[in-house]
Structure formats: C-alpha cells, structure tokens
C-alpha cells in the first residue's frame, strides 16, 4: 500500500454516532479497501477520557487501513490538514431550552469549527454536517470559512433518503434495490419533503405505482419526516447506527461518485435551483462525478410538491434569519 492516508476528521467522536462511524471508516467502508485513513477525532475536554477508550478499541481491531489516530479538544490542532470532515458533535436540546437557545449553543460550536477548518484544513477539504440542526449548522460553518469554497459544505439528509426508500419498498413489497431516484427536498426536520413523483420503482414512476395519494400524504410523508422522533420514543435516544450509515454513504458518494442511472439526496448550498434561494443549505437530488456534485436539473415539480418544498425552504429561511440576528453568520 503506497497511497498516502486520507485524513478524516470526526467531531463528537465519543458520542453514539461516533461509536458506529469510526469503526466503519477504519475498516474501509468509507473510501474502499485500498485507501488508508488517518482519523482526527475532536471532542470536548470532559469527553476525552471516553474517547481514549474508543481509541483503545480501534487499536484492538488492528485495522490494516488505519494508519494513525489523532485526538484532542482543540479544533485548530485536530483539523490540521484534514481532507474530509464529518461534523457530528453538537449540543442536543435539553429540557427548557428554546429553539433560539439551541441555535445559539450550536452556533458557538459551528462558528469556531468553521474558522478552524478555514485556517488549517487541506485545500481539498469536504465538510459534511450531521449534528442538528444540520442544515443551519452547516450554513454557520460555511459562513465562517470564507476561504473554503461554499460548495464544500454539505448537510446530511441521506438518512431521510434511506428511510424514504425503505418505506416505499415495504409498501410495494419490492427489494430496496428496485427503488431509484428518491429525493428529499428542504430541511432535515419534520418539514422535509420526500418526493415520490420523481422516484422510480423498477423503472416505473413511484407515485403511479403506489396509486394512493392518501397514503403518500397521510402515511408515507409523515412516517419519513417524523422517523427521528419515532426512534427517540422507541429507543430512548436518537438514531445512531443508521445516522452513521447515512453519514458514510453521503461522504462515500461525494468522494467516489453516485451510481449510473440514480441520484442521492444531499443538502448543499442552493444555486437558486428549483426556486430555493441562493445560499440556503437545502436538500436536492444530486449526482456526483470526479468528486464534484451537481444538482439534478429539469425535474417536474407539481403543485403538491411545490407547496411542500416551499414550506420546508421557508423554515430554512427562518432559521437563517434567527442565526443572522444572533450574529452567527
Ligand atoms: P451524542 O450526544 O451521543 O454525542 C455527541 C458528542 O458530541 C458528545 O460526545 C459530545 O461530547 C460531543 N460534542 C459536543 N460539543 C462538541 C464540540 N464543540 N466539539 C466536539 N465534540 C462535541 O449524540 P449523537 O447521538 O452522536 O448525535 C450527534 C448529533 O447528530 C446530534 O445533534 C443529533 O441530533 C444529530 N443527528 C443527526 C441526524 C441527521 O440525519 N442529520 C441523525 C441522527 C442524529
Ligand atoms: C434523526 O433524524 O434521527 C435525528 O435527526 C434525530 C432527531 O432529532 O430527529
């Protein structure tokens, strides 16, 4: 193996998602069986001891592709030279916290991390935000990193995308592999819009295959959009392995490309496509080639879809307004 290792940063590395994510990155699932990786793990000071335990477990796996692990609580040291950054660590909402408090607490994290990435990351860095509120956290980091091209900041809606595929496949009694061209539009929140009108099942239109607008409106969309809350209610903590799986899937495809004849949902800075105001980090159908994504153009948006997309985008605009007022962007 002669290739230089790819430096992969993960924040919140001692958390739930980290515990699933790190082992899969180190085993080669992110970048394939021929690419060595070096992990750069960021945590807050009180979690460093737990992180040391996770690193002991990484050591104990003797992963052939894992060349080195760097840990710390100083973003400007941990992000030094990183090529890929997965920003997972965030401040969860706790009892009595208002939305503004959550945006403000996370704003402090993502302004600092955006600045640190701006100063010390590799020139080719790609940044994916998983920590909630993911789209607006990504916007904050992007706004605080003026030297990094805006399109290198993405947020995670791949989990919603995978949830939508799974729900549709179950409804139609087909394997998930027969579902293509799923799209999540908008925000990673309960307003997101999973679109069946442009999706395909075995080459046929998915909405036509379902042929039940009532199920789409009253069952499919709310089930996908509120799945995170359903998992919290059932498990007592938020999705972790599926969130790690989606984080790997997004970054894998962003680096290595999307499959021919399909697309994935990625939250990316809008270029104005589909009437989404420029600059908002919103979910779109995207294809990736040679490490660069493009928003799929020319899809038909019917009136039902238009209203749903507009509602989720309005929520993103509200969040942007709130963090602007807080002086975070
Ligand atoms: P967790 O609480 O188990 O872990 C979060 C970790 O982040 C903790 O170890 C904490 O110490 C660390 N952290 C906090 N502030 C930090 C900072 N400034 N720098 C570095 N690390 C910091 O949470 P989790 O279950 O791993 O979830 C992480 C985030 O991902 C949450 O915001 C959650 O809501 C979000 N999430 C997003 C999706 C999605 O699809 N976008 C899905 C699931 C969860
Ligand atoms: C999820 O979608 O599972 C997470 O974003 C958790 C949540 O708060 O919904």
From TrEMBL:
Residue ranges of every copy of the Lactate/malate dehydrogenase C-terminal domain listed in the record = 157-325
What are the boundaries of the signal sequence? Answer: none
User: Where NAD(+) is bound, by residue?
Assistant: 12-18, 106, 113, 130-132
Asked if the Swiss-Prot or TrEMBL record annotates the protein with the keyword rRNA-binding, the reply is no
List residues of the Lactate/malate dehydrogenase N-terminal domain: 6-149
Q: Which Pfam families match?
A: Ldh_1_C (PF02866), Ldh_1_N (PF00056)
Alphabetized Gene3D superfamilies for the sequence: Lactate dehydrogenase/glycoside hydrolase, family 4, C-terminal, NAD(P)-binding Rossmann-like Domain
Q: Which UniProt keywords apply?
A: NAD, Oxidoreductase, Tricarboxylic acid cycle
Write out the residues that bind substrate: 93, 99, 132, 163
UniProt-recorded Gene Ontology molecular function terms:
L-malate dehydrogenase (NAD+) activity
**Into which EC class is this enzyme placed?**
oxidoreductase
Question: Which InterPro entries does its entry note?
Answer: L-lactate/malate_DH, Lactate/malate_DH_C, Lactate/malate_DH_N, Lactate_DH/Glyco_Ohase_4_C, Malate_DH_AS, Malate_DH_type2, NAD(P)-bd_dom_sf
Active-site residues per Swiss-Prot or TrEMBL entry = 188 (proton acceptor)
Report the catalytic activity.
Answer: (S)-malate + NAD(+) = oxaloacetate + NADH + H(+)
A Gene Ontology annotation in the biological process aspect, one of them, is: malate metabolic process
- Stated EC number for the protein is 1.1.1.37
Q: What the protein does?
A: Catalyzes the reversible oxidation of malate to oxaloacetate.
**Which HAMAP family does the UniProt entry name for this protein?**
Malate_dehydrog_2
Q: What does the similarity note say?
A: Belongs to the LDH/MDH superfamily. MDH type 2 family.
The record's listing under PANTHER family reads: MALATE DEHYDROGENASE
* Name of the protein this chain belongs to: Malate dehydrogenase
Q: What is the originating organism of this protein?
A: Propioniciclava coleopterorum
Name of the gene this protein is made from: mdh
């Amino acid at each position: 193996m002669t290739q230089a290792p790819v430096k992969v940063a993960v924040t919140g590395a001692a958390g739930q998602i980290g515990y699933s994510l790190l082992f899969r990155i180190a085993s080669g699932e992110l970048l394939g069986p021929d690419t060595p990786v070096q992990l750069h793990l960021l945590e807050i000071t009180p979690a460093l001891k737990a992180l040391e335990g996770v690193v002991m477990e990484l050591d104990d796996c003797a992963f052939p592709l894992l060349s080195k692990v760097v840990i710390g609580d100083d973003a400007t040291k941990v992000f030094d030279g990183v090529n890929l950054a997965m920003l997972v660590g965030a401040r969860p909402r706790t009892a009595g916290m208002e939305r503004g408090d959550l945006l403000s607490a996370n704003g402090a994290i993502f302004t600092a991390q955006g600045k640190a990435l701006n100063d010390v990351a590799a020139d080719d860095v790609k940044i994916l935000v998983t920590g909630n509120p993911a789209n607006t956290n990504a916007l904050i980091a992007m706004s605080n990193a003026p030297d990094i091209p805006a399109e290198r900041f993405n947020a995670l809606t791949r989990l919603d995308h995978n949830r939508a595929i799974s729900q549709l496949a179950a409804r139609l009694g087909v394997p998930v592999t027969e579902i293509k061209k799923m799209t999540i539009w908008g925000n990673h929140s309960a307003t997101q819009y999973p679109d069946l009108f442009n999706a395909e099942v075995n080459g046929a239109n998915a909405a036509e295959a379902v042929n039940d607008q009532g199920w789409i409106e009253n069952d499919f969309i709310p089930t996908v959009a509120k799945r995170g809350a359903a998992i919290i209610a059932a498990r007592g903590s938020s999705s972790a392995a599926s969130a790690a799986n989606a984080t790997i899937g997004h970054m894998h495809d962003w680096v290595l490309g999307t499959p021919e004849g399909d697309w994935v949902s990625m939250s990316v800075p809008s270029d104005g496509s589909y009437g989404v105001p420029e600059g908002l980090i919103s979910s779109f159908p995207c294809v990736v080639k040679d490490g660069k994504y493009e928003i799929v153009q020319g899809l038909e948006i019917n009136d039902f879809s238009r209203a749903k997309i507009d509602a989720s985008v309005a929520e993103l605009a509200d969040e942007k307004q709130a963090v602007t007022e807080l002086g975070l962007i």
